[in-house]
Amino acid sequence: MDRRNTLQKEIIHRTLCEMCSHPTAAAVYEEVHRLHPTISRSTVYRVLGQMAEEGQILRLGLAGSDDRYDGNIHRHGHVRCRLCGAVADIPPVAMGKPEDTAGYLLEDCAVEYCGLCPDCLKRQEEKPLSPPEGVRKA
Ligand SMILES: [Zn+2]
Ligand SMILES: [Zn+2]
Prior knowledge:
The chain is built from 4 helices and 5 strands. The chain is of the alpha+beta class. The chain has a single domain, classed as Winged helix-like DNA-binding domain superfamily/Winged helix DNA-binding domain (Arc Repressor Mutant, subunit A). The strands form 2 sheets. Strands 4-3-5 form a 3-stranded mixed β-sheet, with no helix packed on it. It has a two-stranded antiparallel ribbon with strand order 1-2. The structure holds zinc ion (2 copies). The site of one zinc ion (ZN) has 6 residues, from loops.
């Protein structure tokens, strides 16, 4: 890999690590592009894929969303907001080994919780999605 590639890789890695939102490749590109307009979209996507393969970053295949990337490679869990899709880190949960592995060799276990983020929770409390019985009159 030449110098230019190494430099671009460093920039992309640093940008991802500074974003705590578990961004999609598109969001990483936007941020990288803002600061370094010469780095192309395809470079950002390619480098993210490469770093994920090499274990320098995590690729999260979360339910119901595009692949997201995580600069935090320490063992941890995730919670995803079912309304806005925000993802936050939570401390790892110790999982026991199942009695039956269906013949599979288990290598890893990713725990993903689903719920409401603080912002969406607040918004819901302010205006409930469904009005209480009897409020609406025809
Ligand atoms: Zn939310
Ligand atoms: Zn994370």
